[in-house]
Amino acid sequence: MDRVAVVTGASRGIGAATALVLAERGFRVVVNYHSSAGQADEVVGAARAAGGEAVAIRADVTSPDDVRALFEHTEQRWGRVDVLVHNALIPYDVTSFADLSWEQLGGKLDRELHAAYMVTKAVVPGMLSRNYGRLVFLTTVLSRRPRQGMITVGTAKAALDQFVRYVALELAPHGITANLVSPATVADTAASALLKAEELRRIGASNPMGRNVRPDEIAKTVAFLASEDSGFITGHCVEINGGLAMD
Fold it and tell me: Which InterPro entries match (predicted)?
């Protein structure tokens, strides 16, 4: 296989696990990172040790210049992008509505959608020219099932979910799919660091499977959606939550 995948926010957590699984399955993988260069290099080393091809490229996905450079560098190295996994965490505040400012809510909405818009705009023209592409976006159950304090991320991800459905509808005739992956609370990610240890334990205990989801479990689902086998699946949100929310 010579498919090329770009994984944003891939220096740790879900992104790192996804980059490694894709590399193990024969993808050439761009490990995008913002500030964790050492961790990104470790992911690249692990991917290569597993027999895959990978390279780390720094870019802030909320910066137009950085996004442009990320994909120019990728195309110069490997000629194209077949798969985009947009996983990068856009920071947010944990707060009640009573204490919420418009800067907190509007800022999160703007950064979340702007980043998704820019990375998608960067890869779709090439995918259209080849009539092939896989777009996978990480979302959260909080976009559909509110939890106290999570109004900024839940609202922003709800907007992302609908953005992806519109993209999926428009690109479907061209062999390009766009899907969402929605994990429950993850055991080891930057987002979980915003929660206290006791809260993480409580959330895991409330899951029907009795624990929080692992990054590698999410990565394997993303890898399926990134594969040719998922070609007739588009516009969907795949829940990875151990039965916590059943639709």
Answer: NAD(P)-bd_dom_sf (IPR036291), SDR_fam (IPR002347)
